[in-house]
Amino acid sequence: MSEEADFELTPLYRVHAFGCTTQRPPSHPRGSCGTAGALPLWERLGQLIEKHQLPDVAFTAAGCMGFCAAGPLMVVYPEGIWYRPTTPDDIDEIVDSHFKNGRRVDRLIVVPQRR
Amino acid sequence: MSEEADFELTPLYRVHAFGCTTQRPPSHPRGSCGTAGALPLWERLGQLIEKHQLPDVAFTAAGCMGFCAAGPLMVVYPEGIWYRPTTPDDIDEIVDSHFKNGRRVDRLIVVPQRR
């Protein structure tokens, strides 16, 4: 594509979520989303996206995004909303409310602070 | 936080980039970003963000985002811009132009198509 082109881009996904899959040993001082139980939650999330046939919603496994003490941690773009789900019900609510209906789930939002 | 709260959220990052680190065997029919040379590029990207001290810019390693034939593949949010850098110079340009100065690098953009 030309460097001078001023073209419009259609977003590929309406919702693109990333969930941390970092797994540190349980004794590690930083903790990790894996130790906090993230992996089965992300697995459920992926299954629900498939089950509900949401082609404009994607979930991608991610490495450490920092804020390890706040895990299990996920971020949803383009809004840049950070969630900390801890139960299967939390995952169901994120999918039903946010991913399907565009209503963020305030009770699960965390606001990480940059150091 | 209350479920009824209607609060504003300040984005944590001005730029949050995700790069695919999936590594499949070279003979795998889907290919992979790792096989396409992604890993040293993402390493350089992370080093440049640190070197230029861009606290509102983050890079996160990611799993497969699909579109494996288009790798090395990265996506930059909140804009949702997909890039296919292949050389260290490409990485430098993305950091200088997009991450530091907010000007996307049209020549490196790819437009993945959902199946």
What keywords describe this structure?
homodimer, 115 residues, four-stranded mixed beta sheet
Percentage of residues in helical conformation of chain A = 10-25%
Shape by Cα distribution of chain A: globular
Q: How many helices of chain A?
A: 2
Q: Kindly report how far apart the N and C termini of chain A lie.
A: 38 Å
Query: How are the strands ordered across the major sheet of chain A?
Result: 2-1-3-4
- As a percent range, the share of strand residues of chain A is 15-25%
How can the largest sheet of chain A be summarized? 4 strands, mixed
Described by its quaternary structure, the protein is: homodimer
What would you note in describing this structure?
The structure is a homodimer of 115-residue chains. With 115 residues, chain A is α+β, with helices and mostly antiparallel strands. Helices cover 23% and strands 17% of the residues of chain A. Chain A has two helices and four strands, in the order βαβββα. Chain A has helices at 38-51, 88-100; strands spanning 15-20, 57-62, 74-77, 81-83. A four-stranded mixed β-sheet of chain A has the order 2-1-3-4, covered by helices on one side. Chain A is globular. The termini of chain A are far apart. Residues 1-5 of chain A have low confidence and may be disordered. At the A-B interface, strand 2 of A face strand 2 of B.
